[in-house]
Design brief:
It contains 22 helices and 21 strands. By secondary structure, it is α/β, with parallel strands linked by helices. Strands 14-21-20-15-19-16-18-17 form an eight-stranded mixed β-sheet. Strands 3-2-10-5-6-7 form a six-stranded antiparallel β-sheet, with no helix packed on it.
C-alpha cells in the first residue's frame, strides 16, 4: 500500500513539499507578526540613534613642473619597465593621504576635540556651535592612551555636573566627577590641565541641557579621517584628482578638505623654496667673500697709484693693451667660471651638504651641469615628500635613493670635467697673454704692475656684479612660486545624507522580519527529535513499513464524535482489511513503543469501527502488566484473561463481557496483575483459547503491552495475523523507528503496519460535527493507553 501511495504521489512530490513547507511556516504567523513589529521598532531606533553621514567632495588639478634634461631623457627610456616607480600624480596622491599631513590638518582645526549634544536615543554634532569650548594649551593630547570623554549635564542650571572618564598612563580607568556653579571649569588630569570655557549664553543655545566632549589623540583621529577619505586620479593619464570625504557634519567635512588642500599647497611651496633658499644662502656667502677680495684689490690699486704717482695710462701701453683686450676679456670670463665651479665643487663635496638641494642659478654657463643639478633637486624633493607617507623600505623610495646617488655622482664627475676643461683653456689664454707681455716689455714696470692689479680688480668686480644679478633673479623666482594644487571644483557637501539609507534599512528590516522566524522554525525542526505527522515519517524515510493512516489529536471525548475523526478510523479500518487480505486472517495485535502513545485508545476505536460492519468483534486486553482497557469502558468488574490463564476460570467464555449499546462488540479485560505475566502468556492454554475464539468471532483485536518495555508482545506474536504499531505525533522519538525496523527485519512480529496517532490538524479541517460514530457513543478519554 505504501508503495502504491508513493507511486501515485511521486510526480507531485515537489508541489506537495512546497505546499507543506508553506503551511508549516504559516502556522506560526504570530511569530512573523511579532518579528515584523520588533524589526520595524529596531529600524526606527536605528534611524534615531544613527547620526547622518554626508558626502563632501572637491576636485583639484596638480601641476606638473618637471623640467627636461639629458638624464631625464635617458631615464625615460626605462618608463615601460616601471624602473622609476609611480607617476608624479600617484606620488602626489600618496602625499595627500599621508598621516602626517592629515594630522597637521586635525591639529590646525582642533578636530581631535568633538562636541556632541546628547538627547534621548539621539546625538547631534555641535561643530562650530558648541556653547562650551575646550582650552587644551596645558594638555598633551598626543599622549592619550584612549579617548578622554567629558559629560556635562544640567547646563541650564546653576549646578553644572561634569564627569570625565579616561585611562591614565598605566592604562587604569579613572573617573573625575564634580559639580560647578559657573564657567570656566578647570579639570586636572594625568595628561595636564583642561579648561572648559563658555562660548555664549548656554541658556539660549537651543535648550541644550546635556552635551559630551571627546578628546582623542590627533594621530588616531587622523587615521579615522583617513579611513573616510578617498583620493584618486580622475583617470590614468590625468593630473586631475578627486577628493571625497564622509563625515557626520557637512561643515566640518568642508573645512577639513579645504584645510587639507591648503596644507598640501603650503608644504609643496616650502619644498620648492628650499632650492631657492639654499641658492640664496650660497650667493650671499660668495658675495661677502668677493666683496672682501674686491675691496682689498681696490685698496691695493689705490696705494700703488699713490706710491708710483700714476694718473693715466700711457699711449704706448694703451696700444698694446688694446690688442690684448680680447684675450684678457676671455681670461676674465674663464677665471670667473673656474671660480664658480670651484665654489660649487667645494659645496657638493662637503659632507654636511649631503642629501641637500644644490644651488643651481649661480651663473654657471654649462647647460648640461645645470640640467643635472635641477634634476637632482627635483628627485631629492620628491623623495623627501614620499617619506612623509611611507618608509625608506618602500620600492619607490629605494628607486629614488638609487637615482639620487646616481645624479650626485654625475654632478661630481661633470664638475671635475668642467674644471679640467677650464684649466686647459686658462693655460691657452695665458700663453697668448705671454706674447703680449713680450711686446710690452719696454713698458715701465710700474705700468705693467698697475695693469696686473687692475685686471685682478676687473675679475673680482665682474664676479661680484654677476652674483648680485643672480641674487635678484633668485629672489624673483621665490616670489613667483605658485600653488601645487589648483581647485577646479570647490569643496561642497551634499544636501542629503548618504547614510543611513532609510529605504535600504527598511528593506533589511523587512527581510530580517521574515528570516528570523524562518530561521527559528528551521532550527526548531532541525533539532526536533520527534516527528509530527505521517508525511514527515515518509519524507525522512524513517521506515519502509506501510503506514495505514493517521488519527487526529482530540482534546476531549466529545471530539471523538466529530465526522472528521470518524472518517479517519473508517479509512484505517479499510486499510487494515486490505492488509489482512484473507478471511482466515482475523487477529490484529495492537502495540506501541512506550506507554502513552494511545494504543489502547486506538484498539478500542478500531473495535468499535469494525463493529459497524455487522461483524462479531472481540477486544482483548492483553497488557496484563498495566491494564488500561477497563478505563475506556463503563463495565462492572469481572474475571479477566489472567483468571482464565491462571486456572481460576475453566472456560474462556466466562470472562467475556458484552458492551452495552454495541451488539456486535464483546470484550475481555486483562484482570488482576499477575506476578508472572510472561509465563502466563506463554502457556498453550492461550493458543487453545484463541482457536476457540477464532471460530466464534470475525475479528479479534488484542491490546498488548509496549514492545520496548517488556517481552510480552513478542510472545503474543505467535497468535496474531498482523501487528498494528501505534506511534504518537510529537511524542514518539524518531530513534524508536530503528528498533521497529529491526523487529520487522527479524520478523519478531507478524505483518507490521503503522498508525500515527494524535496528529495536529489545521483549523480548516476541524469543522463541526457532521455525524456521529453510529449510535454507540464514545469510549471515554482519548488519551488513555
Amino acid at each position: 500500500m505504501k508503495g502504491k501511495y508513493r507511486g501515485e504521489k511521486e510526480t507531485e512530490e515537489d508541489a506537495i513539499d512546497i505546499q507543506e513547507l508553506l503551511f508549516r511556516y504559516l502556522a506560526h504567523w504570530k511569530w512573523f507578526l511579532l518579528s515584523f513589529f520588533v524589526c520595524i521598532l529596531l529600524w526606527v531606533v536605528y534611524l534615531r540613534i544613527t547620526m547622518p553621514v554626508y558626502d563632501i567632495s572637491s576636485v583639484i588639478m596638480i601641476s606638473d613642473e618637471k623640467k627636461g634634461g639629458d638624464l631625464l631623457s635617458e631615464l625615460s627610456l626605462f618608463g615601460g619597465m616601471n624602473v622609476l616607480g609611480s607617476t608624479s600624480t600617484d606620488n602626489e596622491v600618496e602625499v595627500l593621504k599621508s598621516k602626517s599631513l592629515i594630522r597637521d590638518v586635525v591639529n590646525d582645526l582642533d578636530l581631535y576635540i568633538s562636541y556632541t549634544e546628547k538627547r534621548l536615543l539621539k546625538k547631534k554634532s555641535l561643530y562650530k556651535s558648541s556653547p562650551v569650548l575646550v582650552d587644551d594649551s596645558q594638555f598633551n593630547a598626543n599622549d592619550l592612551f584612549s579617548s578622554l570623554q567629558i559629560t556635562l549635564t544640567d547646563l541650564e542650571t546653576s549646578q553644572i555636573s561634569v564627569t570625565a572618564e579616561m585611562e591614565d598612563l598605566n592604562g587604569n580607568e579613572i573617573t573625575i566627577s564634580n559639580t560647578y556653579s559657573s564657567f570656566p571649569i578647570a579639570l586636572e588630569t594625568p595628561y595636564g590641565k583642561i579648561l572648559l570655557m563658555q562660548s555664549g549664553d548656554i541658556r539660549n543655545s537651543d535648550n541644550i541641557s546635556e552635551m559630551e566632549i571627546t578628546i582623542s589623540a590627533p594621530i588616531r583621529v587622523a587615521k579615522f579621517y583617513l579611513n573616510n577619505l578617498t583620493i584618486a586620479p580622475a583617470n590614468k593619464n590625468s593630473s586631475v584628482v578627486k577628493l571625497n570625504f564622509r563625515n557626520t557634519n557637512p561643515r566640518r567635512g568642508e573645512d577639513f578638505l579645504n584645510k587639507l588642500i591648503e596644507k598640501y599647497n603650503t608644504t609643496a611651496v616650502e619644498d620648492k623654496n628650499k632650492i631657492a633658499q639654499r641658492t640664496a644662502e650660497f650667493i650671499e656667502d660668495r658675495i661677502i667673500l668677493i666683496s672682501k677680495e674686491l675691496g682689498s684689490t681696490e685698496v691695493e690699486l689705490e696705494n700703488y697709484k699713490k706710491k708710483e704717482g700714476l694718473t693715466e695710462i700711457k699711449a704706448n701701453s694703451e696700444l698694446f693693451l688694446r690688442e690684448s683686450t680680447e684675450y684678457e676679456r676671455k681670461r676674465v670670463e674663464n677665471e670667473t667660471q673656474l671660480n664658480l665651479i670651484r665654489f660649487l665643487k667645494e659645496y657638493i663635496n662637503n659632507p654636511q651638504n649631503k642629501e641637500t638641494v644644490v644651488p643651481s642659478n649661480i651663473g654657471i654657463a654649462d647647460a648640461g651641469l645645470l640640467s643635472q643639478v635641477n634634476k637632482y633637486n627635483e628627485v631629492l624633493l620628491e623623495r623627501n615628500r614620499l617619506l612623509h607617507s611611507t618608509s625608506e623600505k618602500n620600492p619607490v623610495v629605494v628607486n629614488q635613493n638609487l637615482l639620487i646617488n646616481s645624479l650626485h655622482e654625475n654632478i661630481q664627475a661633470l664638475v671635475r670635467n668642467i674644471e679640467s676643461n677650464l684649466l686647459i683653456t686658462q693655460e691657452n689664454l695665458n700663453r697668448q697673454a705671454d706674447k703680449f707681455r713680450q711686446q710690452i716689455g719696454n713698458v715701465p714696470t710700474q705700468e705693467r704692475l698697475f695693469v696686473e692689479i687692475d685686471r685682478q680688480r676687473q675679475i673680482q668686480s665682474a664676479l661680484f656684479l654677476m652674483l648680485l644679478q643672480k641674487r635678484e633673479e633668485n629672489a624673483l623666482a621665490m616670489a613667483a612660486t605658485t600653488n601645487k594644487a589648483r581647485i577646479i571644483d570647490e569643496t561642497l557637501a551634499d544636501s542629503r545624507p548618504v547614510a543611513p539609507r532609510r529605504m535600504v534599512a527598511l528593506f533589511i528590516a523587512l527581510i530580517f522580519s521574515i528570516l528570523i522566524p524562518v530561521a527559528i522554525i528551521y532550527l526548531k525542526d532541525l533539532l526536533k527529535i520527534k516527528f509530527s505527522s505521517k508525511a514527515e515519517v515518509e519524507k525522512e524515510k524513517l521506515t519502509d513499513l506501510p503506514i495505514l493512516g493517521e488519527i487526529p489529536l482530540v482534546d476531549s471525548a466529545k471530539e471523538t464524535e466529530n465526522f472528521i475523526f470518524i472518517e479517519h478510523f473508517r479509512s484505517l479500518r479499510t486499510n487494515i482489511l486490505f492488509m489482512l487480505d484473507s478471511p482466515d486472517k482475523k487477529v490484529i495485535l495492537v502495540t506501541s513503543s512506550v506507554p502513552g502513545e494511545g494504543k489502547t485508545f486506538i484498539s478500542a476505536n478500531i473495535a468499535k469501527s469494525f463493529g459497524l460492519l455487522n461483524k462479531k468483534i472481540l477486544l482483548i486486553g492483553m497488557d496484563i502488566r498495566n491494564p488500561r482497557l477497563k478505563d475506556s469502558f463503563s463495565l462492572p468488574s469481572k474475571a479477566g484473561l489472567v483468571d482464565y490463564l491462571a486456572g481460576s476460570e475453566k472456560e474462556i467464555k466466562n470472562v467475556i463481557q458484552k458492551v452495552p449499546g454495541c451488539p456486535n462488540l464483546d470484550i475481555i479485560f486483562a484482570g488482576v496483575t499477575p506476578p508472572n505475566p510472561a509465563e502466563l502468556l506463554s502457556k498453550d492454554l492461550l493458543e487453545q483459547a484463541m482457536l476457540q475464539l477464532n471460530s466464534i468471532y470475525d475479528y479479534i483485536i488484542i491490546d498488548s503491552a509496549p514492545v520496548s518495555a517488556v517481552i510480552d508482545t513478542m510472545i503474543l506474536g505467535r497468535i496474531a495475523d498482523m501487528t498494528l504499531y501505534v506511534c504518537r505525533a510529537n511524542y514518539t522519538n524518531k530513534k524508536v523507528f530503528e528498533m521497529l525496523n529491526d523487529i520487522a527485519d527479524e520478523k519478531k512480529l507478524p505483518n507490521i503496519s503503522l498508525v500515527v496517532n494524535a496528529v495536529k490538524e489545521s483549523s480548516q479541517e476541524r469543522y463541526g460535527h457532521y455525524g456521529k460514530y453510529g449510535k454507540y457513543g464514545h469510549y471515554g478519554s482519548p488519551s488513555k493507553g
